[in-house]
């Protein structure tokens, strides 16, 4: 029997999603015969981990502290094996601006973008550059915080007049924001397990223009197609781009890469998620199921990969 500490919750804006992911993982671990220690990450995290003395920590925390390398660093200090990617991969993936710069350098297609931090606006007059950016990206523009997941804080700017309000909204979530060329197309996700791409999932919002936070997590707001019905060669290309992105960022064991397929059949990578959701509507479990892997089997494999890495 393996003692598994499930780390969930925390104080990020994705707390509720994390609690749902963690609860599903706990149920699966119990069915698999593991000893489960549930920990809602907070000020007593180190004490509770030392008291629990787990064989492995299953990280089900999303957003800040969970996906940005923070809790991974703490677990390494405590010498506790943990699931998923390491510190550096989490840092690279969580920072959308850093990840996109790395993609551009590696020749992985990603929508054109510019990024600013609050200092650029407050002290360097970046507002004066917005007109040039708007001309180069065209409209609509997607404005998003650099380090948030689950589509939190993302706004559409359909005209120059919409940009200031979108920036204010994005800056309320993060000190660095991304202005990105909008891609009108199909929302795709490629999850990877043990370095192998799983079937492509397409998310089709029902009655919404955008696959936003509510569309992601409220049952019935989005239809999911898996495997996605794509043009010839698109599945293979999506798998290739996802695997290249996964390796570029240094991800381990599992992750999810989000892409867009435009009307011309061109694929671009939006971002990578080092700890994708494990809720009832999350895409990784759907992709695993399409590949013949049950949710319990998925959780078991993730734990196994963490223990294998620790033993290596």
Give structural notes.
- Helix content is 39%, strand content 23%.
- It is an alpha+beta fold and 312 residues long.
- The strands form 3 sheets. Strands 8, 9, 10, 11, 12 and 13 form a 6-stranded antiparallel beta sheet that branches. The chain has a 4-stranded antiparallel beta sheet with strand order 4-7-5-6. A 3-stranded parallel beta sheet has the order 2-1-3, with helices on both faces.
- Helix 1 (15-31) packs across helix 12.
Key traits:
312 residues, alpha+beta, 6-stranded antiparallel sheet, 4-stranded antiparallel sheet, 12 helices, 39% helix, globular
Low-confidence stretches: 211-215
From the alpha carbons, calculate the radius of gyration and give it in angstroms. 19 Å
**How large is the count of helical segments?**
12
Number of strands: 13
Percent of residues in helices: 25-40%
How far apart the termini lie comes to 20 Å
Provide the succession of SSEs: EHEHEHHHEHHEEHEEEEHEHEEHH
Strand content: 15-25%
Largest pleated sheet:
6 strands, antiparallel
Mean pLDDT: 89
> How would you classify the helix and strand content by structural class?
alpha+beta
> Can you tell me the overall shape?
globular
């Amino acid at each position: 029997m393996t003692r598994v500490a499930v780390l969930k919750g925390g104080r990020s804006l994705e707390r509720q999603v994390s609690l749902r992911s963690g609860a599903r993982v706990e149920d699966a671990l119990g069915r698999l015969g593991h000893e489960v220690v549930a920990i809602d990450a907070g000020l007593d995290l180190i004490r509770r981990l030392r008291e629990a003395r787990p064989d492995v920590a299953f990280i089900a925390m999303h957003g800040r502290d969970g996906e940005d390398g923070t809790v991974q660093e703490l677990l390494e200090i405590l010498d506790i094996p943990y699931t998923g990617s390491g510190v550096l991969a989490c840092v690279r993936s969580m920072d959308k601006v850093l990840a996109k710069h790395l993609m551009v350098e590696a020749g992985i297609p990603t929508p054109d973008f510019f990024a600013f931090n609050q200092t650029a606006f407050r002290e360097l007059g970046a507002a004066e550059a917005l007109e040039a950016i708007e001309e180069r990206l065209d409209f609509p523009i997607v404005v998003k915080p650099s380090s948030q997941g689950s589509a939190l804080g993302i706004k559409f700017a359909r005209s120059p007049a919409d940009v200031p309000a979108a920036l204010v909204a994005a800056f309320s979530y993060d000190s660095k924001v991304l202005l990105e060329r909008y891609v009108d197309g199909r929302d795709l996700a490629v999850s990877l397990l043990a370095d192998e791409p799983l079937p492509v999932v397409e998310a089709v919002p029902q009655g919404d223009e955008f696959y936003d936070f509510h569309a992601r997590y409220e049952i019935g707001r989005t239809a999911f197609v898996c495997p996605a019905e794509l043009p010839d060669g698109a599945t293979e290309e999506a798998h290739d781009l996802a695997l290249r992105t996964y390796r570029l960022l240094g991800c381990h064991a599992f992750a999810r890469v989000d892409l867009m397929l435009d009307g011309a059949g061109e694929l671009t990578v939006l971002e990578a998620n080092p700890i994708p959701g494990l809720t009832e509507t999350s895409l990784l479990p759907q992709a695993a199921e399409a590949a013949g892997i049950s949710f319990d089997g998925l959780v078991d494999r993730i734990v196994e990969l963490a223990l294998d890495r620790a033993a290596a």
